Amino acid sequence: MNYYFNKTLNEDFKSVIERVTEELKNEGFGILTEIDVKETLKKKLDVDFKKYKILGACNPPYAHKALEAEDKIGTMLPCNVIVQEIEEGTVEVAAVNPMASMQAVENEKLAEVADEITAKLEHVIEKL
Amino acid sequence: MENGKEKTREIPGQDYAESQNTPYCITRRYGQTFEQTVKKLKNGLEKLGFDIVGEFDVQQYLKSKIEKMPKHLILLVCEKETASQLITTDTQMGILFPCNVTVKEVQDNSAIEIAIEDTDTTWAASMKSEIQDIAKNTKATLTKVLDNIEQSHFKL
To answer: Is the Cβ–Cβ distance between B93 and A54 less than 8 Å?
Structure first.
């Protein structure tokens, strides 16, 4: 099982970020954390890297259900969505596949939550 | 201030409401206050070269849903050289990092539990063997943080 769903778009980086944010919102996800990998690598290591952002997305009712099912699942939250520029005007979006990333957790209740969240994230990618 | 009391305080074991089988994380419990534990954890992470790139206060986030939500903080941590190595080896690895380290209250603040993501398991989704080596090293380094918190506790 692949650990992510992805799609490549012919758009500029900034507008893809806006669309991803909007589609996530439509599925009930807020963005809790945003890591600008390009900026961080430049600042910390003086390395030039492509435009690359990691968005940490979370859906409160599902986060609640997940934590009730598995109290230590915080070590795997939030769900990441990455946006990276392959070349100018070509941007790839990839969202984690929680069914794959959480398969190490043997918990049926959590698997149900992961299944529903997986469908929502897959939908986000499809709609782009 | 409360150190004398904390040393004699018994740290409860897991109860049945808690996850028992957790190959995706390594946990340890401490008889200190939540705030002390967070402070020591952050210092310990910093000493080992980790940056805290994000903080997610779960109690605050879910307080409208759960009235008696225990204190629960998720730290997103990253070591820059490792992050750079991961992302240049497998460009999709941003999906699986940063590493999570969580701190939460267990049973009325009688103990604080720290859980670190076991990267050996959670990064196994990437099929690249170089990633597996980095994952093993990261796990070993993060586990040191758990030991260091205990040591600094005894010194006090």
So the answer is: no
